[in-house]
Amino acid sequence: MNIGLVANNAKKKLMQNFCIAYRGILAKHELYSTGTTGRLIEEVTNLSVHKYLAGQLGGEQQMGAQIEANALDLVIYLRDPLSSTGAELHDISNTIRLCDVHNIPIATNLATAELLIKSLDRGDMEWREMYK
Q1: Which of the pair, 60 or 97, is modelled with greater confidence?
Q2: C-alpha distances in angstroms, 43 versus 2, 24, 27, 40, 86?
């Protein structure tokens, strides 16, 4: 499965820790990320991550294009709702909207991200193969 990973600046360390904790599961899948988040994940996990541009340089739009093409099966977007700027809120809203339109599961916080990753590991996401 193809997994998209994005984290606001205040949540990048949390994303790194999440990827360390679930490295065994993530290693079985293709990972896609905005540039900075992807680099940080690779540094701490040695996982291979397909990196888009940095989010503010168009990476989130590149991920959006992948979502529109139904090329991602799951998105984990760890956002900071308390300090997001207007531009970040627009990008987050756009990503959520695209996931809703294309029926792609998205997690915006750690609790939901863990539920989706564990569900993926159990095989509960196989319906995505049929949906494509």
Answers
A1: 97
A2: 20, 16, 14, 5, 29
Say if CB 32 and CB 55 are below 8 A apart: no
**What local confidence, expressed as pLDDT, does residue 86 receive?**
62
> Residues 103, 108, 114, 117: what is their CA dihedral angle, to the nearest 10 degrees?
30
DSSP 113: H
Q: Quote the crossing angle between the two packed helices 59-68 and 86-101, to the nearest 10°.
A: 10
Domain ranges of the chain: 2-122
The two three-digit tokens of residue 59, written as one number: 């990476």
Asked if residues 6 and 55 have their Cβ atoms less than 8 Å apart, the reply is: yes
The burial of 43, by beta-carbon neighbours within 10 Å (0-12 exposed, 13-18 middle, 19 or more buried), is given as exposed
Q: What average pLDDT does range 63-67 have in this prediction?
A: 91
Q: Rounded to whole angstroms, how far apart are CA atoms 93 and 74? A: 16
Q: Which fold has domain 2-122?
A: Rossmann fold (3.40.50)
